[in-house]
């Protein structure tokens, strides 16, 4: 089978993913705290179905939840497990496509799909398939926490780039810089993303570039797809309310 281009993008990024954060450990704690506040129960059974290198999953494990992480990138999922062990928490991980989750029905109290992961699915049928799987593995009335970029605002002016993010190592090592260039398609909704990382090497800058494609789903459209997949009581919660860095769609599995 040919390699999935999204899996390839995140396999290539896995070793350097923490460099997109000014302070990754602080982000782990902050995002875990924000999501924990929305879960609203102790010791929940949580699936992070786009766990990456573990930013949200480790944060929730540190808050005492029983977390399993899956990701399309086997390399990212493996690093998430290692990073969790380094922080003395348990995080089981596996490589899996969110459209085909390897779990029985009604397995989890909460499913997390954060950090703009769903927009890597570029067609409505694929988004529906993923959301239907999230609904299937949730217990009745179980909680969905889904975050994307603030696409309602971004679609108004379709920016060509993101601001640079500077990572300063805690040990005082050399800084790295991350930014993205966006190339919008004619449909005005999809965009090619070029992810740049500038890494200092011997007094010079070494540049890594990785490429992928995203679908800028606005809030109303995504909420409609969530409803079609069998979720109820959906609401959008903004960063100023939750402390999470992206807008969060919060919904419950229908009974």
TrEMBL record:
Entry superkingdom: Bacteria
Keywords for this protein: Methyltransferase, Transferase
Pfam family membership, one: Methyltransf_25
Ranges for domain Methyltransferase: 46-142
GO biological process: methylation
Protein name per its UniProtKB record: Methyltransferase type 11
Transmembrane segments: none
A GO MF label: methyltransferase activity
Annotated organism of origin: Streptomyces fodineus
């Amino acid at each position: 089978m040919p390699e999935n281009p999204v899996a390839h993008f995140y396999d290539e990024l896995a070793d350097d993913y923490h460099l997109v954060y000014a302070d990754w450990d602080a982000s782990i704690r902050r995002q875990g705290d924000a999501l924990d506040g929305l879960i609203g129960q102790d010791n929940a059974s949580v699936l992070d179905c786009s766990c990456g290198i573990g930013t949200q999953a480790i944060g929730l494990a540190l808050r005492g939840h029983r977390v399993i992480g899956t990701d399309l990138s086997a390399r990212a999922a493996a690093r998430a497990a290692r990073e969790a062990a380094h922080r003395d928490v348990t995080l089981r991980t596996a490589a899996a496509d969110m459209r085909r989750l390897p779990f029985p029905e009604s397995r989890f109290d909460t499913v997390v799909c954060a950090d703009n992961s769903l927009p890597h699915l570029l067609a409505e049928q694929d988004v529906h398939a993923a959301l239907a799987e999230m609904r299937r593995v949730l217990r009745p009335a179980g909680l969905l926490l889904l975050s994307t970029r603030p696409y309602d605002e971004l679609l108004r002016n379709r920016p060509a780039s993101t601001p640079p993010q500077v990572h300063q190592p805690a040990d005082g090592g050399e800084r790295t810089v991350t930014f993205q260039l966006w190339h919008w398609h004619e449909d005005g909704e999809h965009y090619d993303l070029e992810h740049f990382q500038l890494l200092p090497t011997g007094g010079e800058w070494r540049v890594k570039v990785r490429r992928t494609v995203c679908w800028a789903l606005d809030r109303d459209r995504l909420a409609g797809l969530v409803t079609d997949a069998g979720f109820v009581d959906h609401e959008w919660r903004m960063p100023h309310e939750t402390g999470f860095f992206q807008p969060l769609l919060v919904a419950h599995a229908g009974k």
